[in-house]
Amino acid sequence: GEAALPLATGYLKTAEEASGARGAGFGMDAELAAQRAEQYQQGAGSPTDQARAWIEALTGEAFSQPDDFHASLKDGVLLCKTINAIVPGTIPAKAINSSK
Predict the structure, then answer these.
(1) What pLDDT, in 10s, does the model give residues 38-51?
(2) Which positions ≥6 away from 80 have C-beta within 8 Å?
């Protein structure tokens, strides 16, 4: 069989597993790809879900795309509103471009 590749979280069994869906490669590339995938894991109770719930509670606004954390925050509008919810007046309302 193929040699296992060491990772901080364990061992991969094959080079195919190391390459991941995007062809992450081997060694450090595979490890970083796995860490990114875990970091953005979604679902009830995940860090991403907890952050989404916290932002929605602070701002009183729902994510435009509840299943896509990145896309919902990409334009910066919800992030600006989150900042203003924490420290009112930090970003002037006229500076927040909410038109799409």
Answers:
(1) 665 666 678 888 99
(2) 91, 95, 96
